Amino acid sequence: MENLKEPMIESKIKLRVRYVECDPMGYLHHSNYLPYLEMGRTELFRQSGGDYRTLESEGFFFVVTKLSIQFKRPARFDDELEIVTRINRKTHVRIDHDYEIFHLQSRVLISTASSTIACVDRNGQLIPIPAKIDFQLPDGVTGSTP
Amino acid sequence: MENLKEPMIESKIKLRVRYVECDPMGYLHHSNYLPYLEMGRTELFRQSGGDYRTLESEGFFFVVTKLSIQFKRPARFDDELEIVTRINRKTHVRIDHDYEIFHLQSRVLISTASSTIACVDRNGQLIPIPAKIDFQLPDGVTGSTP
Amino acid sequence: MENLKEPMIESKIKLRVRYVECDPMGYLHHSNYLPYLEMGRTELFRQSGGDYRTLESEGFFFVVTKLSIQFKRPARFDDELEIVTRINRKTHVRIDHDYEIFHLQSRVLISTASSTIACVDRNGQLIPIPAKIDFQLPDGVTGSTP
Amino acid sequence: MENLKEPMIESKIKLRVRYVECDPMGYLHHSNYLPYLEMGRTELFRQSGGDYRTLESEGFFFVVTKLSIQFKRPARFDDELEIVTRINRKTHVRIDHDYEIFHLQSRVLISTASSTIACVDRNGQLIPIPAKIDFQLPDGVTGSTP
Question: Distance (Å) from the C-alpha of residue B89 to the closest C-alpha of chain A?
Fold first, then answer.
């Protein structure tokens, strides 16, 4: 894998809520928001020139170490949503993301979230994020060691 | 449904991690912890004499409005876990829970979490928690309106 | 809802395999193919001018009564797949679909499946498929009562 | 791992349907039956003295190559179910299972299924089932090469 291109610091993905993801209330079940956030991170990484699958094959893994999420409005089967994912902090072993989830048409904000992921090896030991993953941070955001 | 029995303020459930819940790292995927917390709430409610399914048939629903979770150690396929669920605050429309997840044999704490659930009607409008759900809070914990 | 447009008898949808859908072997877990088939049915219905969510709000539901699936090749995280869904038989209460799942780039066929869905009311009782859902069948395929 | 004990040829497991597994109809979603079948296989293997996790660590994997399932009655949130799993045929690379799913209290049969699993190595290549997995077949059932 080459060094990353001038990286994106925000990804926007669109998706439709699946029937299987909805619960007896008719709402997107709260646990099913988390894979959407993961998809947001994957696309942000791809837009930066990265490929998470290749990274794993090279022995680098990212695990979620904490996550916080607020549910403001429900989503229902077949709703079209937009997931906005941003990096807001990066250290040599961790990356913090913020997320917003919108109803695509109405632009109503239905959920906000934040998470921390850490780089680990095959045995789950914390290791430095590979140098080639050189995400550019927004102005004023300075990564520091954790 | 009769008024609830002298309620439990803590539930402990045991479960085995399913193969389908684990990811390519071999770890229980972080999103799959959330259904475990929901199962903990359901059992806490059952131990208090409640029945969430009946409650829904009567038009009372509980939705998660926020959730925060820390992942300290991984869990793997076939691991036996214990989920400890406690109520730590209750208002007339909301209940806050805290959770701890342990490896059953080693007693290693692998995750902690907290959540807020709110009572809503069929249309998702906030409504008071039915009086019959009269959870007793631990000493020194006083519910107040939100 | 108006009567359906000249209906499609085949839908093709593209999707990427999600990390959460893959198991410790690194493969798309076999149970996670079934929601893909459901998405294929939903899109086939949409292309025909239908809207499954509206149909449910009107009291018509479709339940899967049987399903058969063959797994020929694995799929992995981030693979792009194409799901091809066809109606091959329709009676006044049931619709049979056939499916093929391909790796999008290589066109390798990784799975074939077939299913039967039946129309039921809110109480799960078998009811006739609403007349407005007038799927046109391919030449030579004649629907008959079950 | 020692050679297996006199093996069981049937496992019976009990479980409760989870809220997250149910769909907007209020029914256990049809895709969520498949993990139950997998749990039935895992327990059948465990009762025979086997340990699927250990087997994977030794480089033996079982993949589902085909599966067929009939849905006769719905299941709902909090229902207690029993999954009965039987081996009905075994060759040197494949095992066929049959399944019945019952409502635990009423003994109503809600689903029947059958599947074929095949033994593969880390690269997904078909390999002989390890000799130590010496499932005894019921009288009159003779395994043969596929």
Answer: 18
Q: Is A52 on the interface with C (CB under 8 A)?
A: yes
* Residue B18 in contact with partner chain D when CB distance is under 8 A: yes
Kindly state the DSSP code that residue A41 receives in the 8-state scheme. Answer: H
Residues in D closer than 8 angstroms to C61, CB to CB, are 25
Per-residue pLDDT of chain C in tens (146 residues, 90 and over written 9): 445 555 568 999 999 999 999 999 999 999 999 999 999 999 999 988 888 999 999 999 999 999 999 999 999 999 999 999 999 999 999 999 999 999 999 999 999 999 999 999 988 899 999 877 765 444 444 443 33
The answer to whether C92 and C84 are in contact (CB under 8 A) is: no
**Secondary structure (3-state) at B29:** coil
Does C25 reach chain A within 8 Å, measured CB to CB? no
Q: Give backbone dihedrals phi and psi of C3, rounded to 5 degrees, phi first.
A: -55, 150
The CA-based dihedral angle spanning residues C54, C55, C56, C61, taken in that order and rounded to the nearest 10 degrees: -160
> CA-nearest residue of chain A to B30?
A64
D122 at B interface, C-beta within 8 A: no
| C19 contact residues in A (CB cutoff 8 A) | 35, 38, 42, 52
The verdict on B127 touching A (C-beta cutoff 8 Å) is no
> Are B67 and A30 within 8 A, CB to CB?
yes
Residue with tokens 């989920």: B83
- Spatial separation of the C-alpha atoms in residues A117 and A128, rounded to whole Å: 12
Q: What are the tens digits of pLDDT across the range B79-138?
A: 999 999 999 999 999 999 999 999 999 999 999 999 999 999 988 899 999 877 765 444
Burial annotation B104-141 (CB, 10 A radius, 16+ → b, else e): eeeeeebbbbbbbbbbbeeeeeebebeeebbbeeeeee
pTM for the complete prediction?
Answer: 0.91
Burial of B11 (0-12, 13-18, 19+ CB in 10 A): buried
**A123 contacts chain D (CB < 8 A):** no
> In the 3-class helix/strand/coil scheme, how is chain D assigned residue by residue?
CCCCCCCCCEEEEEEECCHHHECCCCEECHHHHHHHHHHHHHHHHHHCCCCHHHHHHCCCEEEEEEEEEEECCCCECCCEEEEEEEEEEECCCEEEEEEEEEECCCCCEEEEEEEEEEEECCCCCECCCCCCCCCCCCCCCCCCCC
Predicted complex ipTM: 0.88
How far apart, in whole angstroms, are the C-alpha atoms of residue B110 and residue A65?
11
Chains interfacing with C (3 or more CB pairs < 8 Å): A, B, D
